[in-house]
């Protein structure tokens, strides 16, 4: 009879530490960015600068998440720009619509 040696390793033991390194790096970067966002949100006085910094950091974090978890940073630059440009234009459109809409509402 042939003897079969069975391994009693779990999935946690199969994952090498080299594979978890980038995950922990991403976790720490996002954790630090979130902590800085909270610090800015709760310590700076409410003004346009605070909102601009907060929105800017949120966009940086969003692009980092998309690059890491959706693997976009490993794609061809043409694909990245074809996804990024419409997002930029939609954001510009939203800002323009809110700006124009506020002037119409105030003018009445």
| Count of separate structural domains | 2
Roughly what fraction of the amino acids lie in strands?
under 5%
Which shape, going by the Cα principal axes?
flat
Please report the total strand number as a whole number. Answer: 0
Task: Give the end-to-end Cα distance, rounded to a whole number of Å.
Answer: 92 Å
Largest sheet: none
**Rg:** 23 Å
Tally of contiguous helical segments: 4
- Low-confidence segments: none
Q: Helicity, in percent?
A: over 70%
Helix/strand order, N-terminal first: HHHH
Whole-number average pLDDT? 79
* Helix vs. strand class: mainly alpha
Structure in words:
With 108 residues, this protein is mainly α. It has two domains: 20-74; 76-108. The protein is built from four helices and no strands. It has helices at 11-14, 17-43, 48-69, 77-107. Helix 2 runs antiparallel to helix 3.
Using brief descriptors, characterize the structure shown.
108 residues, mainly alpha, 2 domains
In short:
The chain is mainly alpha-helical and 108 residues long.
Secondary structure layout plus pairing:
Elements lengths: L10 H4 L2 H27 L4 H22 L7 H31 L1
Helix pairs in contact: 2-3
